[in-house]
# Entry
Amino acid sequence: MKGFAMLRIGQTGWIEKEIPACGPMDAICKPIALAPCTSDVHTVWAGAIGDRHNMILGHEAVGEVVEVGSLVKDFHVGDKVLVSAITPDWNSLAAQEGYSMHSGGMLAGWKFSNFKDGVFGEYFHVNDADGNLALLPEGMDLGAACMISDMVPTGFHGAELADIQFGDNVAVIGIGPVGLMSVAAAAIRGAAEIYAVGSRTNCANLAREYGATDIINYRQGDIVEQIMEKTHGKGVDKIIVAGGNNDTFDQAIRMLKPGGIIGNVNYLGEGDYVKIPRVEWGCGMGHKAIRGGLMPGGRLRSEKLARLIVANRIHPEKLITHTFQGLEGVEPALMMMKDKPRDLIKPLVLL
# Structure
């Protein structure tokens, strides 16, 4: 089969591989919709998780089942399925402890394009099919469905990590596709003021549509000063970090109230350390918590997020700004994510 792969750090290309084998609890799928992610960019061009050779990229897909293992109960050949970017081993001790995304080791629930071939091929393998696939609801927009792989659950996990409660004032730093879903999640969880930090007009407009009350443009001044002015010097109750870099935590701590929580879902692809300002962190005693987490995967979460779409509570299809056709469209779509033109939010590849 053909797949688009990371050949080594800084280099991608098309390769030929064997169709993956199906274990007794697994499924083999062919993609019907795909989306590249900034994480793919970090992996290839920043070497964020180390060197990988001839590894097929991609972790965002909607698929059609072409083979199931002998022990798979709930899925059959021909089923159209939602595929989570994170596919834990559900019989692991980590899953029983409530951290399925770390089954097999830290971040090891993230298998696609981390330590096994991803979804940017003619076929891809899904472990523990009954636990990691979900049926595609009839009539669901394929763009929305593909966003259930990663953008929606990651953005929503930021709101979970920050423990947003009704009436909280919230800052969302970074309003790319994950941050936009964080804005939507904060609104659903009952946030009062939602300050969305970003500069691109299309992202700002969609953030307002999803529930942002104010746009904080970092090109127009220091974001800490802008947030503190908006909150009359008090700071915000909760922060979701969905963009920026290692220095963003310095800014987040400075704009957070004592007792507040930072939920980080940003993939830190470069650097060795995260900076925390000592005094503004209360000399280590300010009750300003930082929680960083890989999104949960699995069937139940995909099904619940799909329900929100079916009920018209969220509209992730609005993230899609560019559409490509055919598997060969993966390459220009990924390069678009790398180059980030101003009109881009998220590209989609339809097969």
Observations:
- The first helix runs from residue 38 to 46.
- Residues 2-150+295-350 form a domain with the Quinone Oxidoreductase; Chain A, domain 1 fold (CATH 3.90.180.10).
